Amino acid sequence: MTVDKFIEAKREAKQVYKLIGILLINLSTYHLINPIPLRGASLQQANQQYQAGNFGMAATLYEELLSKNPENPYLQYNSGNAYFKNGKLGKAVVHYEKATLLLPRDSDIQSNLELALKKVGEDLIPAGIPRVLYAGYHLLSLQELTALSLAGYWISLIFLSIYLFWQNPGKKRRLKPFLITLVLAEALFLSWWGLRRNTSISNLGVVLESNAEIRSGPGTNFTVAFNVPEGRRVQVIQEKGDWLEVGVLKEGIKGWVSTKAVEKI
Amino acid sequence: MNRSLRSYSHLIRALFAWGPLLGVFALGPQLCWGQDISLSATVDKETVTLNDQVMLSVTVGGNISNIPDPELPSMPNFNAYSSGRSQNISIINGQVSSSVVYTYVLTPRFVGTATLGPIRIQVGGKTVQTQPIQVKVVRPNAAVQTPPPTAAPQPSRSSFPGAPDILVTASVDKKEAYVNEQITLSIKFYTAISLLGNPEYIPPQTPGFLSEDLPPLRHSQQNYKGRTYYVTEVKTALFGAQSGDTTIGPAIIRCQVQQDFEADPFSSDFFQKFFSQGLLSAQTKELRTDPIHLHIKPLPLEGKPRPFSGAVGRYTLSTSLDRKELKTGEAANLTITIQGEGNLKTVAASEIPPIPTLRVYDMVPQLSLSKEKDIVQGSKSFKTVLIPTASGKIEFPKLTFNYFDPIAHKYAHSSSPSIPLTVLPGSSSSRPLTTPLQGPSEVTQIAEDIRYIKETEYKNHLGLALSAWINLKIIHFFPLILFLISLTLSQIRNWQEKNPERFRFRRAYSQALRRVKEAGPLFSQNPSQAITLLSESLTGYLSDKLGISVSGLTLKKLMEILKEKSPQTAETCAEEIKSTWEHLDLIRFAPQAGPQKRVEPALPDLNRVPQNQLESQENQQIVKQIETLLSRLEKTLK
Is A223 part of the contact surface with chain B (CB cutoff 8 Å)? Predict the structure, then answer.
């Protein structure tokens, strides 16, 4: 074997090693690239169980998928459907609410949430609030509102900087109305974002137990003040050990309930 | 006389006695039709003996949901008792019609022909009535030969001084009961003598109670204080409507008894008395019972189930469907039956939870009562029609009926199992019959259900982009930094505009140095411009520092101002300023003289180097000299 042939063979061997290395890296990262796991539940399996009317099994499979991808609004919606059909209205409302937060303009999610709440004696849109106003307030998701607020912040500050930098009074005068509009729009987006963040996520809970007992204090030694049916939405005011102080939104009453009986959104 | 008296008293006593059922049964119904309602009345016999009873059935039918109760007319010849109510429903071509049969027990009071009716009901402002029915009341032996009831002995009043001839008592089986629990009231009429005519019974006032007659009349013989009485007993079931203490008023019996009459055949007016005794010796007596005080207990709040309609007693619930497989739009008859002991009239049906694909119509109750052993019992059936609106498998849910058991003193319930129902797709003609007629283009909602699952993977490119945008983190500080810079510059500019002299003072050194540095490279190309720049750097610096205008500034004037504004500088740097100023003026305004000559005293060794090199060194020397001067001035003029 000549020296040239030896060098060529060595080069080819290097290329083969390189290919093997790439292949091994690809195999090791396959589960990261592919969103559907090789083992465990798949969306198709869960959907098949739902179609077959095995709603309990479908709900379990959707929950398994959600544990890996909780930000998927379709999975939240399907899970809500499976629980609804299985007669568990509390869990159904929880998942529909989560799906609504992620995808607020989806009419299917809105429709099913409204029906589930109707079944538990509650209205999706509080009495006295026009539907248009409610729809407008919930038009954008929190993520969209955050992104818009950030964009408004960028544009406002850039134009404000230009305004300050410019020395030409004529140009400054022309820029001023546009700048005021921008700042007001940004203030509106920030207020909207703040309201949504503080009202819809941090303190909403759903009753999971049938006729959950709401007591006058955080413990079983306090008397049961009233019962709340499964699926009703409550406002979580504070948490103390295994007890939550909740306010029932529709009736405007409050009391303490076991953390097991309520799931926070 | 004895024979006549015996026969007469026998007839009177037989008034309350039960005899065998005889006579003619079931006459043709006297039917009467209203606009949507029919009313008929029948009796089970046209001829009745004094000791027998007549069953009067009043049937009200029609296609209206709330059938009114019939109004019984005044019937002086009879005592009337309600014996129950039963209801039947039928659904033909979607039209629900029902009929209610009211049953009354009539016991005759007088011999003769009596007229029943007309019986009326009021429907929608119109009166519907039946034809009158003739009933003939005869003496027992006139109708058919039947063995008469055992007659009470004819005791002599004088033999039982402590025992009255007639008396009436009222008693209840319990003095304390729950709301809607049965209390049995018993009124007993004791008689030991012959009565003239039928006694009149006025039942007691029972405020706060729902009452139910417990026929038939009971007859017996009882001993009281050694005297044998013929006893007639009337029983009534009472159901307390509300809790608290209450009183049953007195029951009243009015009857005619024979006055004491000693028949002395040797008396002068014996015959007059004998022939007129029936009319002239009668005396009306009114007997009253003592009021009875009762306590009605409220139902306990503890353990009260939901829903609870107030049923008290012991009940069982059952449901049945007449078919388990049908097509959409077809009807299945559902019967919910509540059976047991208690006030079934007030019992309401178990609530049927809403079933999305099943239309449930209004329920029609049917009551069947029996009063065996003086306990109000029986069954109440609620019939309705279920019409599936969509095909598939439906499970009619388990129903629960909650009631209070007064014997166990606690709430109980009875449940019926769920019933599976298979619904096959029906033809378009088998739509629910009560669906309103709609145009072909309109959509009719059949059932309310959630929307179907989403089978596709969720792809949210916008969400990913937004997420990436939000997660830029530190980059989002850029506009803020830009804004702060702009703001600072803007503030500086404003300060400059407001304090120009101070600005010139601060900027003087940097401006002068800049000019000196610009002048350096210019010596090779344009020496005069370089020198001008150097001169301007010095004059500009001094004018900026001293706050004077550069135009028309002369050395003399400058020195005067310098002495005035900064005497220290004038003392230390005056000579240097002066020499530099004059040197620069010399170069600028006397170009024929070479720079090397003009600077000769200061640079004696430069004559030995080449011409261009010499010029370069000279230029550098001048620049250096200016820089040094400016540096010194800056130190003193700060």
Answer: no
